[in-house]
Every structure is written in C-alpha cells, then in structure tokens.
Structure prediction request, 276 residues.
Amino acid sequence: MNALTRAPGAEPAEIDEAVFASLLKSIRRNRFLPIPSQERNFVGDGDFLAIGCEFLRHFVELGGLRPQDRVLEIGCGIGRMALPLTQYLEAPAGHYIGFDVVPAGIDWCRENIGGAYANFEFLHLDFNNQLYNPQGKLSEQGALPFEDASVDFLFMTSVVTHLDPAYTTFYFREAARLLRPAGRLFVTAFVLDTANRTLVEARKARPAFHLEGDGPDYIADRDHPMAAVAFDADWLLGMARDLGLQLARPIAFGHWSGRVAENFQDICVFQRARPR
Prediction:
C-alpha cells in the first residue's frame, strides 16, 4: 500500500460554502505560509498565494475536491497549488503527492512544505520535457510509480499546455489507471472548439496560435514549440473518452481566447467511469 491508498472510512461530508469562503480569505492573509523568492519561482508571474487560492476554489467548486481526498498533482512546480492545499486537506485521510521534472522545485517543496506537513510528499521524476527538462531520461513509454485506483483527485494545471499529443495521452492514460471509480481529473488547457478557433482566427486570442496543419496540436511560438500548446477539442475529449474519462461538467472556457471569463486557461474536469 503506498501513500496514495486511502484508508477505509466514511465518505466525506459536503463542503459548507461560507466556511470554505472564510478559509480562502484566511489563507490569502496568512503571512506565515512560505513563499519562494522570485529568483526561484519558475512557474510564472503574479501573486503566488492568490493564484494558488484561486485554483483551490476551482478544485472545490468545479472539481469536487474534498478534504479527505487522496490527491496527486502532475507537474507541481514549486508548490503554488500545494501550499493552499495544506490548509484544506485533512490528515490523515486527506493526502497529497506532487511530482515534477524540475529538481529545484521539488527541493524547495520538500524543505518548506513537506517538512511541516506529514501528509504532503514531493517526488522528482526525470521525465523528458523540451521546455523544463530536455535532458530527462524517462519517457511516455513507462508508467508513474503509483498503484492502480489509488487516487480520488488528480490535477494538472498548466501542464498539457506544454506537452505534445504523445505525452498528453500518456498522462491521461495514467490518470485513468490511477483514479478510483468516479475519481476526478482536473486539467487546464487551451482547447480549440469551434468558438475558440474563430476567436484565434480573428486575432482575439493570447497566445495567438498558428492554426495551419491537421493538428491535433497547435503552437504559438515556432522558435519555442512547447511554450504554449493548444489541442483540438474533438481530439482531446475523444482521447479521454477512449481511456474511460468522461467530462463531469461542461468545460469552463477561459479568457485566453478573447471570451469573457474569470479563469485564463480552459478548465476541464473528467470523471473516471464506474465499472458496470
């Protein structure tokens, strides 16, 4: 039994919205939570803690995350999503494992988060990534080192936006293997449905993807192909469906394409099909 295997127990209770809103407010005001220096932060600009809190809200309100869930994060970076989760997941049932291809981020997370929260673990897995780990030894031909059906909630934020179709399929396939029946997969992506394609063609989108070619992936920067990657909606949803992952709710489209929206990237929440 690994750390992501859930102990027997009752199903978690529903979340009280007022209590949760108060929790988010208290996290944002918590001056004692560790924040990495700007020189060490490789996951993007913006308010580190505020962005993490924004996604915690999305995880709960859109993804159905509960305090007792066993959680796996693919591409945990330097802990921007993990940090607010320390105040939400309830040990010992609630447990988090995050992994990343950048060892410096894992080192920081182990020292500043894992050292203070026993139910939080961080692993470095040396997967090849053109943008973040071009010398990585692991490929999409292998498997993640976790047991089947051991995860309640698996998430990837700003991960498939830097992957090719092969690696995206690999992580979705592994998610389908790792999720328990009715477990949820939360993914942010640039999804090219008909409306988003029209907005890209009208030059409303940022990133401004090049739409020539047959897809299913499209890039925004020819000099740095993995800097931003978009996928055909039919391909992404069809690939997930073939692996046993169905959309649990309509896609929450983001404002990257020029739509009016609160979130930047498109948010997709998939659910593992229950066995018949």
Remarks:
- The chain has one domain: 47-272.
- Confidence is low (pLDDT under 50) at residues 5-12.
- The longest strand covers residues 179-192.
- Residues 48-61 form the longest helix (14 residues).
